[in-house]
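Q: what does this look like with heme C bound?
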Amino acid sequence: MNYPVWFLPSIGGGTLIAFIAIVHVFVSHFAVGGGAYLIALEKKAYNEESNELLEITKRFAKFFILLTMVFGSITGVGIWFITALVNPGGISLLIHNFVFGWAAEWVFFVLEIIAAFVYYYTFGKMDRKTHLKIGWIYFISAWMSLFLITGIIDFMLTPGTWLKTHNFWNGFFNPSFIPSVGFRTFMSFLMAGVFGLFVLSFYKNNEAKEKFVKYSALWVTISIILMIPFALWYVSVLPSEAKALVLGKSPEIVRTTKVIITSGIIGFVLGLIVFFKPSFNKAYIAFIIFLTGFFVIGSFEWTREAARRPYVINKVMYSNMILESQLETLKKDGFLKHAKWVSAREITNENKRQVGKELFIHQCYACHTIGGFNNDIKEKAASMSYTALTKYIEKIHKVRYFMPPFAGNEEEAKALAAFIAGDLLGKEVKEPVKKALDGKTIFEDNCSSCHEPSDFEDLIAGWDKAKIRKALDMLDKLNEEMPPFEGTPQEKDTLTEYLFKIAGGEK
Ligand code: HEC
Ligand code: HEC
């Protein structure tokens, strides 16, 4: 609310970031792991006195420099550029706390670039020992970049004691720092391995190639194994809410963790086969292994981002840039009164929809597109009426922990509901008249956000009316995802009749 929002309704800022992030994350991890991989290959070539191996290493080094230097730096700058555009509030908070972390990262990045160039241009022209040392300088400075950025990125997920002390070191060495550095280090070795296999699959067959293939397959399989303990450690230090999301409360995250596990297993098995039978490393097999690596890394980063929901910085700032500390004020005074980038301060009949749209942009667009493929609000809210949406918005965070609480007053909630239900879904926007409601309406207003009427044929099969009526008093006890039903006793009776009927009635 302190910054304007760059509004691309059907694309969404998240998709934009993801697009660059996925390439950057791959290349930047590859830059670290690839450094270690090159040194190891070079050493192996010297030990075996093999010119062929040395030649392959040199060719790798060339490609490597092109890829990491050019692509790595462009996407690296690109990602901060985009995140700063999409979430200026979050980036500003990070810069104000970690500016020296970032500065140190740039120093290592410069060192990394210089070392990479020296390494490549002196290949075969320098004595072996010194050349390997240059390789080490490269690898260590690349790894230091990983180390430093991990501190900042994981601070966003687990700020730990920083929340109380606001101390740089508490934030940097946060609870998920070490598991994350470990996980990323082996992930970077995995990237080097899958990449090696892929490039090698195009080389002509000879003994040197076979050795390299076997060697790269080891990097793949061993890295996957070593990533597991760090992954478990990582999950174990997550705050309880984030852990609950990862372990099942968020259907989206659960789907993605399945992708990580399945890809890891496929990559491991194929890597193992290639190790025992290097001729199996055909281009298409190598490509599949490469893809599994890509899926592991992409899904991991996505999960880390999603597990932070509803925050961009856990317990401090919500994904929509609203500070947790501002929430009470905004609920009391209304969002419009304090926000900087809105067109009106008061809601009138004329501007209601426009205000609703602006509220959507400032509070929901961080995660929802309008008509886009990613978390489309039109699809997600399709079953809800205006009244249902109003009620839903007011308790949105209680119903779904991964969404931030609505930061505004009742009038604003209605304006937002009017925009979604009226403008986006083309439904009628009408204040409910205070009369006895029929069961269907009560259902639509209170239950339809999570249940279809037809669900109840199974959900309450065989229940009698007394049991249904009792359940309505304790919905939150029946399933922890369900909010309690706050209707009057009379409404509960009416809803009981309705549920009993849709579940099949008297048999
Ligand atoms: C931090 C991200 C985030 C923000 C901000 C957010 N949502 Fe959501 N919302 C989600 C996710 C994730 C889902 C569920 C996706 C899935 O699993 O199907 C969802 C689902 C929904 C649904 C479908 C019903 C349900 O309970 O699953 C509605 C309606 C909805 N959001 C409305 C809103 C409104 C209105 C706002 C703004 C006040 C908002 N959301 C802000 C992430 C967010
Ligand atoms: C925020 C989502 C949400 C809302 C709103 C919601 N429910 Fe549920 N409900 C669930 C979930 C999740 C379950 C578990 C079963 C499932 O996945 O369908 C459930 C299960 C149930 C069950 C079966 C409980 C059991 O012990 O087997 C009943 C009955 C039920 N809901 C009734 C209702 C009624 C009536 C309303 C409206 C007043 C309602 N629910 C609103 C999420 C919700």
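Residues 386 and 421 are 5 Å apart (CA to CA). The chain has 23 helices and two strands.
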